[in-house]
């Protein structure tokens, strides 16, 4: 709460009190970026205290950076302290997102009224969220599927492959469940928060996957990292790598998440070049189009599964062992 108070004060000072002066916005932006880096270093160090929790810092920090950048671009009008504080301290999305933007929240705050249909919709979303979280994520995936996995030889290919499937399914159902609960809770209060997931495991390529997975984060990264980098470098590879390295660092300051970001960044860049390839256009206009859709889906899912080998274990040595077994290099 102390950190959030300081962040709110710095953001309000730059955007409201100093009337969005560019020097104040840049200073506030640097302060928040350095504070987030310090937070990541602190959580990785031995100085971390078990009774000290930075609730939601990774999520509200991105919202603050969004606010400062929009102020720098001149897209903010008539920001009031009450709106800023309500937005930054908004309980439904404080801990796990989605990372909602200021302008839509500002409009909802001005227009909201009692709406029984909206309230009923919010109750349904909360119910669906708890079903994903408790029934699908916890009971079926974490308990039942894990019980089935424990019966397999733990040095075999099937165990390693389905362990990654279980990890990905658990991550999706729990995070999508939390997002549904947050969106539903916001609807109960009269606010519309952006969707965060859109059936990501139906994606046909890795770019499509990131348009469906953690949408509020991927859209933030696309707008504030990918687009500025590509406008300067004119290189989709550099822009994709920069975006995903930022995204990886946002998750955790470690080699495994940096490699995870590089893996997805390289995949997105390759997908960008492939989408402009004459060969792809020829395949999609041929009788092979239906088969290619299925092949693209399978390739995308296994590309994502391979990245889970980096994030589901604690060390790169364990990742290497996972990948060797899956590739059939070692038993």
Topology:
Layout: H1 2-17, H2 22-44, H3 57-72, H4 81-88, H5 91-94, H6 102-111, H7 116-150, H8 157-188, H9 206-212, H10 215-233, H11 236-251, H12 255-275, H13 278-284, H14 289-311, H15 316-327
Helix pairs in contact: 1-2, 1-3, 1-4, 2-3, 7-8, 8-14, 10-11, 11-12, 12-14, 14-15
Choose one word for the global shape: globular
Can you give the helix content as a percent range?
over 70%
Structural class: mainly alpha
The stretches of 5 or more residues where confidence is low (pLDDT under 50) are: none
CA-based gyration radius:
22 Å
How would you characterize the largest beta sheet? none
Task: Sketch the topology as an H/E string, one letter per element.
Answer: HHHHHHHHHHHHHHH
Number of strands: 0
Distance between the termini: 50 Å
Q: What is the residue-averaged pLDDT?
A: 91
Number of helices: 15
